[in-house]
Write a structure and sequence with these properties.
This protein is mainly β. The protein has one domain. It contains one helix and five strands. A three-stranded antiparallel sheet has the order 4-3-5, with no helix packed on it. A two-stranded antiparallel ribbon has the order 1-2. A hairpin with a 4-residue loop joins strand 3 and strand 4. It is extended.
């Protein structure tokens, strides 16, 4: 999803509603849980074969100013 698509979806919502992030807890019953969102940040991600999904990069690993950073994204946490 792109930021513009998220904005479009949110415009139809109650602006006073709480925001949560839902995901499968991973238990036997495949329970959907909903964590609150406290922050909106920008960051960088790259695909992780181990996790089989994108992982957030630790920016301390990129001290060289000439290094091109991969995949800038918006992070909800």
């Amino acid at each position: 999803m792109k930021v513009a698509e998220l904005i479009e979806q949110l415009q139809a919502m109650d602006p006073n509603a709480d925001v949560h992030f839902s995901y499968n807890y991973g238990d036997h019953w495949r329970t959907q849980v909903a964590a609150t969102i406290d922050r909106v940040d920008e960051g960088h991600v790259e695909y992780s074969d181990y996790h089989r999904m994108d992982k957030v990069l630790d920016m301390d690993d990129f001290d060289d100013e000439g290094t091109e950073l991969p995949n800038r994204v918006v992070l909800l946490s």
